[in-house]
Write a structure and sequence with these properties.
Function: May play a role in copper homeostasis. Can bind one Cu(1+) per subunit.
Subunit structure: Homotetramer.
InterPro entries: CutC-like, CutC-like_dom_sf
CATH topology of the largest domain: TIM Barrel
Helix content: 25-40%
Number of domains: 2
Radius of gyration: 18 Å
CATH class of the largest domain: Alpha Beta
Number of helices: 7
Structural class: alpha/beta
Distance between the termini: 34 Å
GO molecular function: copper ion binding
Strand order of the largest sheet: 1-2-3-4
Shape: globular
Protein name: Copper homeostasis protein cutC homolog
Low-confidence stretches: 132-137
């Protein structure tokens, strides 16, 4: 439902995240069934691309599963998401992803934010260019902790031509009656009557910064 409404409202390409649950990226057979079903439905309802990631228990790219999921995704382009930041050896993982046919890798440079992982993002970009000349600097959209305060430094330091961020703000709920004794999630989750929404002003500011650099 979300995908259908979004496609009606925007003209930019919409890539759909395929992730059956939170937590790690080691998936069971049942979860793989869900992922394949989600991919088919996303394609049916107009997705322009897919985003997923899968790892083995020892922190390597799950090539067997990724190959199977890529086959379901085709002919749409596919991005490997920040599961990449949890791999044992990012340089080896990168070569694996290129050989499998992923078109982008979303990463914070295996650190808590793209700014802190900037040196690795740059190193990865330098590694990928000689081995795959068709890959542009858009292969590594940095993501993780990107704001209007650090975007310029991240784009200039990574030579990236794309970036990923939430650009969200908290909006107070419109509810007038509020039950303070019940939370619809974990005890450390966001307050029940606070909603995270995309902030148009933040998006415009980030776009302006990027356009000025790129």
């Amino acid at each position: 439902g979300l995908l259908q409404v979004v496609k009606q409202c925007v003209r930019v390409p919409v890539f759909v995240m395929i992730r059956p649950r939170g937590g790690d990226f080691l998936y069971s057979d049942r979860e793989v069934e869900v992922m394949k079903a989600d991919i088919r439905l996303a394609k049916l309802h107009g997705a322009d691309g897919l985003v997923f990631g899968a790892l083995t228990e020892d922190g390597r790219i799950d090539t067997e599963l990724c190959t199977a999921l890529l086959a379901v995704c085709r002919p749409l382009p596919v991005t490997f998401h920040r599961a990449f930041d949890m791999v044992h050896d990012p340089l080896v993982a990168l070569e694996t992803l290129i050989s499998l046919g992923f078109e982008r890798v979303l990463t914070s440079g295996c650190d808590s934010s793209a700014l802190e992982g900037l040196s690795l993002i740059k190193r990865l970009a330098e590694q990928v260019m000689p081995s795959a000349l068709w890959v542009t600097s858009g292969f590594f959209p940095p993501g993780g902790g990107i704001t209007e305060r650090n975007l310029q430094r991240i784009l200039e330091g990574s030579t990236a031509s794309e970036f990923h961020c939430s650009a969200r703000s908290a909006r107070d709920s419109g509810m007038k009656f509020r039950n303070p004794n019940v939370a619809m999630g974990a005890s450390f989750s966001a307050p029940e009557y606070s909603i995270k929404v995309a902030d148009v002003a933040k998006v415009r500011t980030l776009n302006a910064i990027a356009k000025n650099i790129l």
